[in-house]
Specification:
six-stranded parallel beta sheet, binds uridine-5'-diphosphate-xylopyranose, single chain
């Protein structure tokens, strides 16, 4: 049976989940503190860019199964299930900042007018769901134990990738559901019936296990990327080709070919934050997460490495002083305007520190980058304008349009001939045939 659901928070995860859960036939009221966001969403205008999101948003608004509101009390009172999808940003000391979760739990306590399942979708450190359970008992005087609990808590971490979030929501590799009360499991089976019918595996486990699955997955993927990045550096030093190495490694079913693309280091809103939070969780349990710690620092090193290599091509220390460096690609990966923890930030800063003048282009992320660097650098809507008069080119994001870069025109626009291709989007031989001194990563 379809469920009445409240979703608290309409950020990336909250919005995609709201639209997806209503598409599964549930009745969803999504809450955001920001009235402007609420108003826009009720008019069917997405507040984030995600492929397919607008269609799903409109369709479910029209069906009457989805609405947005700033009235959190009403949304919770009408709901049988409350999804928490508020932000869990990183605080000063690397731990996750849970103040938004705490606030939402306060609202649930205030409006607990019957049995409700509280589902945590935000990425929260291990122990948070048990804390939510305790806190709700404390605030309401009700119990979550026994055959007829007053409420229940479920940990249901989300694995959405930016740019593929809608597709990921409807076709997840698996659903992870940490729970304790059998009644909570029955409710969640109803919510996700549509996915069960297409045989999406459901992992039913304890609260702590579910919480750690999310961090373990993200940290493992971050480790995989860092591993291939270090291998790329070695392959290059030894005269080997990292693409053939990664491809052959991936043929081993135990390894899988995914997340073995070398680059300038991982960025984004999740991997950097979640790896740091995992180290900090380890610290609080007295467990040394030394491997993850090393991944974080190796990744930082990676971001600077591509600039070091460009410097070397230019003639060594100080060689970029007064030169013009063009950077193509600012987003942390292609198909997004997101620049959070993007390697391009470190790259541009390092180029400035080296005394270079920096000219940048990105199809989507220019505005976000302007907020960060202001008039320290020059911004261009067209890639060839960014290349005008440049002594060197550094490609930092794997946008498709850079793969087909007109190299003849690029050569004509540029003053110099250096290319550092940090994403291996160009063909080395072809670039060299146009007179470029070309370097990629790991080949
Ligand atoms: C969040 C977590 O931060 C991340 O760790 C997890 O992996 C996925 O969920 P995201 O959905 O991108 O990420 O969060 P964010 O973009 O910060 O959105 C939070 C939304 O909740 C905002 O729209 C904010 O206005 C809203 N909010 C916040 C509320 O409605 N109420 C609050 O009390 C706090
Ligand atoms: C990630 C996880 O994939 C997702 O499951 C989780 O819910 C949120 O974090 P996202 O941050 O959107 O998603 O991007 P992702 O595609 O995973 O890329 C992360 C970073 O790793 C990017 O900077 C990307 O360029 C880099 N990357 C990824 C590589 O350098 N090489 C690869 O092979 C894959």
């Amino acid at each position: 049976m379809a469920k009445n659901i409240a979703v608290i928070g309409t950020g990336y995860v909250g919005l995609v989940s709201s639209v997806g859960l209503s598409d599964f036939g549930n009745y969803v009221t999504a809450v955001d503190v920001n009235p402007e966001i609420v108003e826009k969403l009720n008019r069917g205008i997405p507040t984030i860019y995600e492929l397919g999101l607008e269609d799903y948003l409109r369709r479910n608004l029209e069906s009457g199964r989805l609405e947005f509101t700033a009235d959190i009390d009403r949304a919770i009172r009408n709901a049988e299930i409350v999804f928490l999808a508020v932000g869990t940003p990183q605080s000063e000391n690397g731990e996750a900042d849970l103040s938004q979760v705490e606030q939402a739990v306060g609202s649930v306590a205030k409006n607990l007018n019957g049995f409700k399942v509280v589902v945590c979708k935000s990425t929260v450190p291990v122990g948070t769901n048990r804390w939510v359970k305790g806190r709700l008992s404390e605030l309401t005087g009700e119990s979550a134990e026994g055959p007829d609990p007053a409420f229940a808590v479920v940990s249901n971490p989300e694995f959405l990738r930016e740019g593929k979030a809608v597709q990921d929501f409807f076709h997840p590799d698996r659903l992870v559901l940490g729970y304790e009360a059998p009644k909570a499991r029955e409710y969640m089976e109803d919510v996700y019936r549509a996915l069960n019918l297409i045989h999406v595996p459901m992992v039913w486990c304890g609260l702590e296990t579910a919480e750690l699955i999310k961090y373990a997955s993200n940290a493992f993927l971050a480790t995989k990327i860092t591993f291939i990045n270090q291998m790329a550096t070695l392959a290059e030093a030894a005269g080997a080709d990292i693409h053939v190495i990664a491809h052959s490694m991936g043929m081993d079913g135990r390894i899988s070919p995914k997340f073995l693309h070398p680059g300038p280091g991982f960025g984004g809103s999740c991997f950097p934050k979640d790896t740091r939070a995992l180290v900090s969780t380890g610290d609080s349990y007295g467990v040394d997460m030394s491997l993850v710690r090393e991944v974080i620092s190796a990744n930082e090193h990676m971001k600077g490495l591509v600039v070091n290599r460009l410097l070397k091509m230019a003639g060594g220390a100080g060689a970029l002083k007064g030169k013009v460096a063009a950077v193509l690609g600012l987003a942390f990966k292609a198909e997004t305007d997101d620049i959070r923890e993007s390697p391009a930030i470190t790259i541009v800063q390092r180029l400035l520190d080296e005394g270079a003048e920096v000219q940048v282009h990105d199809p989507e992320a220019l505005d976000n980058f302007k907020k960060l660097f202001g008039d320290e650098i020059r911004y261009f809507e067209h890639e060839f304008d960014a290349l005008k008069g440049a002594d060197a080119l550094l490609i930092a994001t794997e946008w498709n349009e850079y793969r087909n870069l007109d190299l003849e025109r690029a050569k004509a626009e540029m003053r110099g001939n250096l290319i550092m291709d940090a994403r291996n989007v160009l063909e080395p031989e072809k670039a060299r045939s146009f007179g470029f001194a070309y370097k990629g990563v790991g080949r």
